[in-house]
Amino acid sequence: MDCQSLDVAKDCVNVLQKKFPESKRVGRLEAMLLEAKGSWGEAEKAYSSLLEDNPFDQVVHKRRVALVKAQGNLSGAIDFLNKYLETFMADHDAWRELAEIYISLQMYKQAAFCYEELMLSQPTVPLYHLAYADVLYTLGGIENLLTAKKYYSITIDLTGGKNTRALFGICLCTSAIAQLSKGRNKEDKDSPDLQSLASAALEKEYKQRASDKLSALTLAFKTLKVSS
């Protein structure tokens, strides 16, 4: 099916049907074959039938999400994922998929909630802290920017100072906070020091790995009014 050799896939499924006529796993393969053919309605009926027999089949639930997503129905995918997560709340991949769909629809507050759930369940995964910080930075506003800066800092800490995106995030947040507050934000006393450390780390990284791009980095710092 992945190679679009659907005739061969059909032959394989037919052999499996004869060998295991009552198998639910074979039933899933039949539905997936319909999905691969683009027979969306028939595939949906097949998945719904399988869920009637076993409402806790995680694979079938996820196939339904993939089915509506393949048709461009992102709101349908959101509905299915939310219903799925009501039962399978510990499924990290589902939370992440839901967050990415929300981001594609510019529903950033909902995406932030998804990443908060992920960070609660897996607090040592830097990717989730980084994604959460990106979402908060995109939302904007002093409070969100301050929180984003904290989560960029956590990402840097969890990666041993090696996450380039988080280092840039520190510089962007600090610059945006300075522009919005114009020096009035007394709670953000550590920003200049943190910004200097981040920009110095970026400069060192660029000198070692991409020296030909160092001039572009310097120009970016000037635009953001960042001093290394």
Which segments are poorly predicted (pLDDT under 50) over 5 or more consecutive residues? none
Number of helical segments with 4 or more residues = 12
Main sheet properties: none
Overall pLDDT level: 93
Q: Secondary-structure element sequence?
A: HHHHHHHHHHHH
Q: How many beta-strand runs?
A: 0
Distance between the termini: 53 Å
From the helix content, strand content and strand pairing, which structural class follows? Answer: mainly alpha
Computed over alpha carbons, the radius of gyration is 24 Å
Kindly estimate the percentage of residues that lie in beta strands according to DSSP: under 5%
Description:
By secondary structure, this protein is mostly helical. 77% of the residues lie in helices and 0% in strands. It has twelve helices and no strands. It has helices spanning 6-19, 24-37, 40-53, 58-70, 74-87, 92-104, 108-121, 126-139, 142-158, 164-181, 191-209, 214-224. The chain is elongated. The mean pLDDT is 93.
Output the keywords.
about 230 residues; mainly alpha; elongated; endoplasmic reticulum; ER membrane protein complex subunit 2; membrane
Task: Describe the SSE topology.
Elements lengths: L5 H14 L4 H14 L2 H14 L4 H13 L3 H14 L4 H13 L3 H14 L4 H14 L2 H17 L5 H18 L9 H19 L4 H11 L4
